[in-house]
Write a structure and sequence with these properties.
56% helix
Length: 605
């Protein structure tokens, strides 16, 4: 049975066999396969870009986007850190790159909170909200496409070109990645930077001097984008140490033997000298310590590499904050609650800028809040530990889920892929476990690293060289792609076929899984086209201003029920969380149409 070199090892040919290499045969077939591979990559990325751009053009601001766009504008125009401290600046600086082109007007004297800031920027400063949001989203779209190349490169190193294409296909057709990659938010950038850091740590198995610092910079970029990536830090440092230890072993194995010379033979007829009085029955004390030191050397190298990675990551976070404000001016929020105990002590120990540490305290306040959740028709307060796995089950294409499982199993079972299994599975497992302990059951965007990492793992499925396995892999990729294409352009409320598709997602999930305020513009267009002279009542969950899109509507909860006639448009999240008054209105109304699978329109008698 043929053997394969372990991944990460250099294959060295003995000198006597390497002197006359066989001439390489340049035929049309390799060039043809390379051209097909490049064309397939470009086609997948073009499809993804078209889906994200066309979605970004049609969607009105989601709940978080105006805050990020407003904060990014303050960053690039005023160089101030005073807004949105609960999230580090890097993702918003990415958004700000697009706003440098849009050049929105913002009054420097504005003093409202961050929610008011976003609304003021989009609707009260003379700016075109469509144009501002499109330019805010475009840099995130570009970054999402670049992370697709990381997915491709990582999977190709493990499983060849076919494995790279499988991984890129699942990434490029992932409804969740497309949905959040087309928004001016932080979820995809944070996941992508974590993936990039892990990929670079994997490459450090070959060239640690080059890739260890790069892995540290990518890890710092992730930490400087979202604080939820912090649980990945110890995992990444461990992986770097493993990679450097492996590189050291491979180097020593490949180096020519240079051990101590063997003792000279005793001439015939002479006695071997007797051992000295201190000599023992085994090797000398110096020899034993030399072997112990040799065994500890890989651990010391790994520990030093992990420390260097942490140092580079920390420097990256500081550089991001200094890029916003070189003087690092900072006044803590007046309502900042300073906790006591272990959490506060740990935060104070972090070698990070004060705004970052105060932002962590803000996040602790969010985690101490009891939020409302909605899962499979049940409205509850608090958090369910199984919420994220259940939401992923609903919102993952079935073909992708099957390939995730197969690829992860192959990576763990096949000997030459086994070293990569920890790199592919440990980071998402740790991040998912940390997210499952959180208090906000608000969407799979908190677990977006799962489809990103497992797309790479799925590429490993092609290592099984059997006709049936190849056919099954191709069929599952096609199934996932068709499921994604069928939901276009409504990627945010996607649900797979087993749970009724995007039209039924609102029955099982809420918030950013379904309705994040993205369809206010579509509602305005539907009302203008089909109900131009009808009285409209609106219960809207989102950050948009209805009047800015031509919607003249009132809140039906502010008047007696008998006065509510005409059309009643209600965000699906508001339906899931309806109070007694809204439930009574809905019970006496007839649903007549659905807008973007996130807003339901009712007819009132």
């Amino acid at each position: 049975m043929p053997t394969f070199p372990a991944i990460g090892h250099d294959v060295r040919v003995p000198a006597d066999r390497a002197t006359l290499p066989a001439p390489r045969r340049w035929t049309a077939a390799p060039r043809h396969r390379r051209a097909v591979f490049v064309a397939a990559v470009l086609l997948l990325l073009a499809q993804m870009a078209a889906a994200m751009v066309s979605t970004a053009v049609e969607q009105t601001p989601t709940i978080d986007e105006p805050v990020y766009a407003g904060t990014a504008t303050v960053y690039v125009q005023q160089h101030s850190l005073r807004y949105n401290p609960e999230h580090p600046p890097l993702g918003k600086l990415v958004i700000g790159a697009g706003l440098l082109v849009a050049r929105p007007h913002l009054d420097p004297a504005f003093t409202g909170d961050q929610t008011e800031l976003g609304r003021h920027l989009l609707y009260a400063s003379g700016n075109d909200p469509w144009r501002v949001m499109l330019w805010a989203r475009l840099p995130v779209i570009v970054l999402t496409l670049l992370f697709g190349l990381v997915v491709l490169a990582f999977a190709r190193e493990l499983a060849g070109r076919w494995g790279g294409l499988v991984a890129l296909s699942l990434y490029a057709f992932s409804p969740d990645v497309i949905a959040h990659g087309s928004l001016a938010t932080l979820d995809v950038p944070a996941c992508g930077f974590v993936l990039t850091s892990v990929w670079l740590a994997w490459r450090a198995r070959r060239r640690p001097a080059l890739y260890v610092p790069l892995a540290g910079a990518a890890l710092g970029a992730a930490v400087a984008t979202k604080m939820s990536t912090l649980p990945a830090v110890p995992v990444l440092l461990l992986l770097v140490a493993v990679s450097v230890r492996h590189a050291g072993r491979a180097a020593r194995a490949a180096a020519p033997s240079g051990g101590p010379a063997a003792p000279a033979p005793v001439p015939a007829g002479e006695r071997e000298p007797a051992p000295g009085p201190d000599a023992g029955p085994g090797p000398s004390r110096a020899g034993r310590w030399a072997r112990v030191g040799s065994g500890l050397r890989p651990f010391r190298a790994g520990a030093a590499a992990a420390a260097g990675t942490a140092l580079v990551a920390t420097a990256t976070v500081w550089a991001v904050y200094l890029a916003v404000d070189p003087r690092l001016r900072w006044d803590p929020p007046a309502d900042l609650a300073v906790p006591t105990g272990v959490r506060a002590a740990l935060v104070d120990l972090l070698p990070l800028p004060r705004p970052y540490r105060d932002g962590m305290l803000v996040q602790f306040g969010f985690e101490d809040t009891a939020w409302q959740g909605f899962l499979f028709g049940r409205l509850y307060r608090g958090a369910l530990w199984y919420y994220l796995p259940a939401a992923l089950l609903v919102k993952t294409p079935l073909g992708a889920a099957a390939l995730w499982t197969a690829g992860a199993g192959v990576a763990a079972a096949v000997r030459r892929l086994r070293p990569a299994a920890g790199y592919l599975l440990m980071p998402p497992a740790v991040l998912l476990a940390a997210a499952m302990t959180g208090s906000r059951d608000l969407g799979v965007r908190y677990a977006l690293f799962v489809p990103v990492f497992l797309a790479v793992a799925a590429g490993c499925a092609v290592v099984v060289r059997r006709p049936w396995a190849t056919a099954a892999t191709a069929a599952l990729v096609l199934f996932a792609a068709v499921s994604s294409l069928r939901t276009y352009p409504y990627y945010l409320p996607y649900a797979n076929e087993a749970f009724g598709g995007p039209a039924a997602t609102r029955l099982r999930l809420h918030d950013s899984n379904v309705d994040w305020g993205q369809d206010l513009g579509r509602l305005a267009e539907r009302l203008r086209r089909e109900h131009p002279h009808t009285r409209v009542w609106l219960v809207y969950k989102g950050a948009g201003v209805p009047s800015a899109y031509g919607i003249d509507a009132a809140d039906p909860r502010t008047v007696p029920p008998e006065r509510v006639h005409g059309l009643l448009a209600v965000s699906d999240t508001a339906i899931a969380k309806a109070d007694a008054r809204l439930r009574a209105l809905l019970a006496t109304s007839r649903p007549i149409e659905d807008v973007g699978h996130s807003i339901t329109v009712f007819r009132r008698p």
